[in-house]
Write a structure and sequence with these properties.
Tet_transcr_reg_TetR-rel_C_sf; DNA-binding; about 75% helix; Tetracycline Repressor, domain 2; 9 helices; Arc Repressor Mutant, subunit A; mainly alpha; transcription
Length: about 210
């Protein structure tokens, strides 16, 4: 029977391999985001992503399989945890307000992945290979917003006559619209000041 000392290097090697895989995937997604921001969605190919990240096209294919799968993964990764402070909060009015304020504030960071997401989202309106993925992403976002409103109505912090779906559509549209304005005219959008203003407006509009 192998000793503990003999087994330990095997577990360490496995962890190292998983770490390398994670790092490679992150590097490929980062390279794809850079290409989207610099040259647009149509400029993204598996070969160019691999070259930008310092890998072969075969590595990109191994991780994602196709350009569409790569863009899907980029869309998901660029929005996951976009406002990390709300991750552990229970649904309701306070989470909704913090999400709105945090989202607008994060837009001011001008990160590559956030900009890539907005460009992909805009492209999805006319690109069939992107539309389904972004419909799913937007619906997941609306579902979270609806949960906040529904719970707020139930606990009495949000007006009873409020329609959760209407609020979800309006909030998502406002956040994405602010993001696109920031992308096109950064100097026109003061995200730090606007984040507070928009959050206060929604609090006044919804509070019971």
């Amino acid at each position: 029977m192998p000793s503990q000392q003999q087994r330990t290097p095997v577990r360490t090697a496995r962890r190292t391999q998983e770490q390398r895989r994670t790092e490679t995937r992150a590097a490929l997604l980062g390279a794809a985001a850079q290409l989207v921001v610099e040259s647009g969605v149509r400029a993204v190919t598996l070969a160019r992503v691999g070259e930008r990240a310092g890998y072969s096209r075969g590595i990109v294919t191994h991780h994602f399989g196709s350009k569409q799968a790569l863009l899907d993964a980029l869309a998901k990764s660029s929005q996951s945890g976009f406002v990390p402070s709300v991750g552990d909060m229970p649904p309701g009015l306070e989470r909704l307000i913090l999400l709105i304020e945090g989202y607008v504030s994060e837009l001011g960071r001008d990160g590559i992945t956030g900009r890539a997401f907005l460009l992909l989202w805009a492209e999805a309106a006319t690109a069939p290979e992107l539309s389904e993925s972004f419909r799913e992403r937007d619906e997941a976002f609306r579902a979270d917003l609806r949960d906040d409103v529904t719970v707020g109505i139930a606990d009495g912090t949000i007006r009873a006559e409020t329609d959760p779906q209407d609020v979800a559509v309006a909030v998502l549209g406002q956040l994405r619209g602010i993001g696109m304005q920031r992308l096109l005219a950064p100097d026109a959008v003061d995200t730090q000041r606007l984040s507070r203003t928009v959050a206060q407006q929604w609090r006044r509009a919804l509070s019971a």
